[in-house]
Specification:
6 helices; 142 residues; three-stranded antiparallel sheet; mainly alpha; single chain
Length: 142
C-alpha cells in the first residue's frame, strides 16, 4: 500500500486551499470593484506608506510590468498617486485620500471574510502557520 508522505500532504492541502480562498476573496473584493492584485497594492501602501514598482513586484512575487498595469488602473481610479523619491528616476507610489478611504472600507469586508474562514483556529495556531509560511517563502527565494 502506498502512503503519502507528510510533506506531500502539506503541499496538496496548500494547493487545495489556495484556489477556493482566492476565488472567494475576489468575490468579496468585487463588491468594491477590485481584484486581488489591486487589493494587494492597496494593502501594502496602507501598511508601508510608499513603495516603488520594484518593491511592489517583489512583495507580490510578480514581474514589474504586471505591477505597472495594476498601478496604472489604480491611478486611473484615483486610489494611488506618484510621489517624489530620493532619485528622480524612482517612481514611488502612495495612497491618495480616496485610496485611504477605500482601503478602510474594503478592510472591513476582508476582515469579516478572513475571520469567518478562521473559525475554530486559535491565534496560537495562526501564528504557527504564519511562521511556517514565512520560512517556506524564504526557502523558495534562496
Amino acid at each position: 500500500m502506498f502512503s503519502i508522505k507528510t510533506y506531500q500532504k502539506f503541499f496538496q492541502q496548500l494547493l487545495l486551499l489556495y484556489r477556493p480562498f482566492e476565488n472567494r476573496l475576489n468575490l468579496e473584493l468585487a463588491k468594491h470593484d477590485l481584484y486581488r492584485a489591486q487589493w494587494s497594492v492597496l494593502h501594502y501602501l496602507s501598511n508601508y506608506g510608499t513603495a516603488t514598482l520594484v518593491e511592489l513586484a517583489g512583495y507580490q512575487g510578480v514581474e514589474k510590468p504586471t505591477v505597472t498595469r495594476t498601478i496604472s488602473k489604480l491611478e486611473e481610479l484615483n486610489y494611488v498617486e506618484q510621489v517624489a523619491g530620493k532619485d528622480k528616476r524612482e517612481k514611488r507610489m502612495q495612497l491618495t485620500e480616496q485610496g485611504k478611504k477605500l482601503y478602510a472600507k474594503v478592510r472591513i469586508t476582508i476582515d469579516e471574510y478572513e475571520l469567518d474562514i478562521l473559525k475554530g483556529i486559535s491565534e496560537e495556531e495562526q501564528l504557527a502557520c504564519i511562521r511556517v509560511m514565512e520560512d517556506i517563502r524564504k526557502n523558495i527565494r534562496e
